[in-house]
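Handover notes (outgoing to incoming on-call)

Open items:
1. Lipoprotein: sequence verified, structure written out, both below. Nothing else pending on this one.
2. Nothing else urgent.
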Amino acid sequence: MTISRLLAAGFVLASCAPEQSDDAALGHIAEAAADTALQRDANSVDPAHRITLDGLGPYRAGMTIGEFRSAAGDTGLEFDPDFMVDLSALCTTGEETPSVCAVVYMTESLTDDHGIAYLTTADPRFRTPDGIGPGVSLADAEAVLGPATLSFSYANESREFIRFAHAPENWLFTPSRDEVEQFAGFYDLSTGAEHFETAQYRPGTLIDSVDIYPLPDGQARP
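Lipoprotein C-alpha cells:
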C-alpha cells in the first residue's frame, strides 16, 4: 500500500541518531541561526504557533485523536476521510485558528482511539523559535537548518519532500511548486531510477508545509 508521506519518512526514522534530549536536538539550530536575519527570541513566537521537536503548538505527534481533540479545546474540527491517498485527517478550522491536521491511516469512522501518524501544517503562522516554517524560502531555511536535500519517488506519487541536514529527523518539509514546473528541485530524470534526490532547486522556492512525526521510542519529548 502506498502511504505518501509515511514512505518518505520511514527510511530515516528507521535509522535515527542516538537518543538525545529536545534541547540537544534543537541546540545546534539556535547556534546556526545566530547570525541570520531570521534569528529571534524564542519567546517572540506565540506558543500556539510554535514548531517544537515533536509538535505544532499544543499538539503532539504521538497523541491519539482523543488527545488531539482535548488539546483543541473549543477550536472547530473537521474530518476529511480522503485527505490524501490512503490517509484521512482531522483538521482545525476557523480563520483565526492556526491550521493543523492530525493525519491517520484512512478510515471512514474516526474514533478517539486512533493514533496520529503525523501532524501537518501549511499555516505561515507556525514557526520554530528561529523563524523557520511555511512561507520561508529554502535559502533562508538552509542558513538555520543546514543544506537541503530535495527528493521524490515515482512509487510515492512523485510527491516532493525536503530534509535539512541539521533539522530533527522526524521533521519533513514540502516545497512550493512553480505553476509551470512539476518539481522545485533539479533532477536528472534520464537515469531511469525510481527515487531521485538533489541539492539544487529553483531560486525563490519556499517551504509549503511541515510534517511532524512521532519521536522514535526512547527519545525525550519536550
